[in-house]
């Protein structure tokens, strides 16, 4: 380039910058905002990109005036019709213009249109497909924002990935279901690998498996005896479940929070106390009351695990329900396996005389060790 | 020698996406391993289900705009992508024009147009020149490995003519320098000095030497050669002055500014050089000079970030406006996912948002690809601000390995 000409173009460039706001240079993006519940979609296309595919500059002066853009409205709308599709199971939905004008993003002015979306079955759209400008510019992208009751979800459509699910209807339900089952599984696993909860349950389970001394004289038939024991067990487990569900919910929803180190220590202590209580009922014979009291603390323990897993989950309630149900299921599985076994062992004197004391001693010792370990960590 | 490829590209237009950090979240380390693995699957699920970001609401749709108002000035018609040129040389000319525009304006749309043309051009009609241009495009898009493979193939092909081979070698040497592969860079520069002797090859060698512990010798010998060839062509002079500036800055010599200004006089649209000079001035507290130098360059991310920092330090009335503009720009870029200018975003996060953690993530991702002094210094600063000693140790070990000393980060070798 000859220097004079070079300098001239430089001058022109400077004038251009003074005349216009300093828009950033960025790669080419379209912006699409979908609100599936309102059945609305807004699309913003850069005027600069539109000028590549439509003859918007009707007077050929290299500039786009308001009038030229307004004149191009029909062509732009037709282009959007060809390149943007929302659809669901019943087929592609119809777009009806609601609002049209210009807007802006960081790199300059955009033509923006808002449309009402009506699908053949009058249901919400489920997916979006976009295919404008990719041929002219393979680095072009459509940045999609989907807003619904759960918040905003962002996506990007590219030449090799032109469709995205809007996460509506079945989609949202499917997601929630997936979340629920995942947390259900986590709940089961957490109970089954969490030794302290298992030991606590074991200790709670022992009294109903022991011969009922006061009632022995009544010579109750064996069937009724079993029924009473089962009722006692159900009472204990229900009390534990209700208590820890309440505190789990309170903690998971951030209504009450306790320092986890303390909670862990008290959980360990609860096992030792429960073990002691089998022989010396310092806290009374009603095991269910004990189960309820300590169940409250165990709930905070579950909550700390759940809290770690749900950071960033918007559907905390779904996660909480799944996790809690998982814990109960794990608990039930444990009871179904252990109780018949222990009940059967209860027939033998050796069980009451040796096995139970040995178990309680071991559990008590282990839990006291945990208490010491956890307390020293505080 | 083609001008398009003769400057280092440090700007990343695309494809320098956020790589997932391999480090575990802090809370994860507190969990036993078995639980940790499950937690990972949950975190992944949760991320997939709820990709939520706080984005500002889009600007309203303005329906009552004025008919007379000029909304936008379009780039010249000759620069719009249209039909595919019929011959390989015509295609190469066109692509070269796009790459030049992308570099001179810092406008990544032109890179997209260039790629669009390549995608429509049959592979069996690719010439060596087109291949070098495609490698340059890939380098601009931070696809370093495909660029390296293509350039190596051109160099290894027996039919490549000498001139194009030199162009390919210079481009490759440049790429290796940017990525910090100094041995390979040195070998290519030396070969270039054989095949295509002159200031460009000398600059190439000097740069490789300077980054590997011989900055002083490299500077003196390149300066002597530059004085000897006063009548050299403009492009060679630009190369030499740019390299002298960089080595001077590395040595902490105030002459760096003179060299850079020399380059800008010859090539005012050299954004790479303008950015380096602006950074140099900023580091010396010459905020007003930075604001003047970056005036009318707010649309270029690298310059806009430095300008915003200078404005903030100078308590300029426009500081908040520019910061807000950058915030919107980077929010859009992050939505797009492939962060346009990772280094610029990291610096924005560090110096304007004062968010050391975010800055460190991006400075680190940037440093995986690009290891020029400004990249290294940014990562050092971010790591120090975030208190990450292991990153500091990694950089120090790397600098030690190449015996790299730089006045811009003297503390790195404490």
TrEMBL record, chain A:
The chain crosses the membrane at residues 188-210, 230-253, 259-283, 290-311, 317-342, 354-372. Residues 1-24 form the signal peptide. Keywords: Membrane, Signal, Transmembrane, Transmembrane helix. It holds the Pfam family HupE_UreJ_2. Coiled coil: none annotated. InterPro entries: EF_Hand_1_Ca_BS, Put_HupE_UreJ. This is Uncharacterized protein. It comes from Marinobacter lipolyticus SM19.
């Amino acid at each position: 380039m000859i220097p004079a000409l070079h300098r001239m173009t430089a001058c022109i460039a400077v004038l251009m910058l003074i005349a216009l706001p300093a828009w950033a240079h960025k790669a080419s993006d379209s912006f699409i905002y979908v609100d599936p519940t309102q059945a609305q979609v807004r699309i913003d296309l850069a005027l600069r990109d539109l000028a590549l595919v439509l003859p918007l500059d009707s007077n050929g002066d290299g500039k786009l005036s308001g009038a030229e853009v307004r004149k191009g409205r029909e062509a732009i709308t037709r282009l959007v019709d060809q390149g943007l599709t929302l659809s669901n199971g019943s087929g592609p939905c119809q777009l009806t213009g609601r609002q049209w004008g210009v807007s802006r993003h960081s790199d300059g002015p955009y033509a923006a249109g808002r449309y009402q979306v009506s699908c053949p079955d009058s249901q919400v759209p489920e997916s979006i497909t976009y295919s404008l400008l990719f041929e002219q510019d393979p680095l072009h992208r459509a940045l999609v924002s989907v807003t619904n009751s759960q918040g905003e979800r962002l996506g990007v459509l590219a030449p090799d990935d032109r469709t995205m699910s809007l996460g509506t209807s079945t989609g949202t339900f499917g997601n929630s279901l997936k979340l629920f089952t995942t947390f259900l599984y986590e709940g089961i696993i957490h109970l089954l690998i969490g030794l302290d909860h298992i030991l606590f349950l074991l200790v709670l389970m022992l009294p109903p498996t022991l011969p009922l001394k006061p009632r022995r004289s009544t010579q109750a038939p064996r069937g009724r005896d079993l029924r009473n024991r089962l009722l006692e067990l159900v009472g204990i487990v229900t009390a534990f479940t209700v208590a820890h569900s309440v505190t789990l919910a309170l903690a998971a929803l951030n209504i009450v929070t306790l320092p986890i180190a303390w909670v862990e220590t008290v959980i360990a202590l609860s096992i030792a106390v429960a073990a002691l209580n089998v022989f010396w009922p310092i806290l009374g014979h009603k095991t269910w009351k004990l189960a309820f009291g300590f169940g409250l603390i165990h709930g905070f323990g579950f909550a700390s695990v759940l809290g770690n897993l749900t950071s960033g989950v918007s559907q905390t309630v779904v996660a909480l329900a799944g996790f809690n149900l998982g814990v109960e299921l794990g608990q039930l599985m444990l009871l179904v396996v252990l109780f018949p076994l222990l009940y059967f062992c209860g027939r033998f004197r050796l069980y009451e005389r040796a096995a139970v004391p040995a178990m309680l001693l071991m559990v008590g010792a282990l839990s006291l060790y945990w208490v010491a370990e956890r307390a020293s960590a505080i | 020698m083609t001008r398009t490829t003769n400057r280092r590209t440090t700007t990343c237009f695309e494809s320098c996406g956020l790589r997932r950090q391999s480090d575990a979240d802090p809370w994860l380390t507190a969990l036993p391993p078995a639980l940790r693995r499950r937690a990972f699957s949950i975190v992944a699920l949760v991320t997939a289900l709820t990709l939520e970001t706080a984005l500002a609401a889009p600007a309203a749709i303005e329906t009552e705009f004025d008919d007379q108002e000029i909304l936008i000035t379009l780039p010249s018609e000759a620069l719009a992508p249209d039909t595919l040129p019929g011959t390989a040389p015509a295609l190469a000319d066109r692509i070269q024009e796009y790459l030049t525009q992308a570099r001179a304006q810092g406008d990544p749309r032109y890179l997209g147009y260039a790629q669009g043309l390549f995608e429509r051009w049959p592979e069996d009609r690719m010439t060596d020149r087109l291949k070098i241009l495609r490698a340059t495009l890939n380098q601009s898009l931070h696809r370093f490995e495909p660029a390296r493979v293509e350039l190596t193939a051109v160099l290894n092909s027996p039919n490549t003519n000498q001139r194009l081979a030199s162009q390919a070698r210079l481009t490759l040497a440049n790429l290796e320098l940017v990525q910090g592969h100094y041995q390979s860079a040195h070998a290519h520069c030396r070969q270039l000095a054989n095949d295509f002797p002159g200031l460009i090859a000398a600059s190439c060698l000097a740069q490789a030497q300077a980054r590997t512990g011989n900055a002083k010798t490299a500077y003196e010998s390149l300066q002597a050669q530059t004085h000897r060839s006063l009548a050299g062509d403009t492009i060679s002079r630009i190369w030499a002055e740019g390299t002298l500036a960089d080595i001077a800055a590395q040595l902490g010599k105030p002459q760096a500014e003179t060299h850079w200004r020399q380059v800008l006089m010859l090539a005012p649209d050299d954004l790479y050089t303008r950015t380096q000079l602006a950074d140099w001035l900023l580091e010396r507290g010459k905020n007003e000079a930075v604001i003047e130098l970056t005036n009318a360059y707010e649309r270029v991310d690298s310059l806009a970030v430095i300008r915003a920092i200078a404005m903030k330090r100078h308590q300029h009335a426009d500081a908040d406006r520019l910061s807000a503009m950058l915030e919107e720009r980077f929010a859009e870029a992050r939505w797009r996912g492939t962060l346009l200018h990772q280094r610029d975003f990291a610096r924005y996060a560090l110096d304007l948002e004062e968010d050391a953690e975010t800055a460190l993530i991006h400075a680190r991702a940037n440093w995986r690809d690009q290891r020029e002094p400004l990249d290294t210094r940014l990562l050092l600063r971010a790591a120090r601000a975030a208190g990450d000693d292991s990153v500091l140790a990694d950089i120090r070990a790397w600098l030690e390995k190449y015996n790299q000393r730089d006045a811009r980060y003297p503390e790195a070798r404490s």
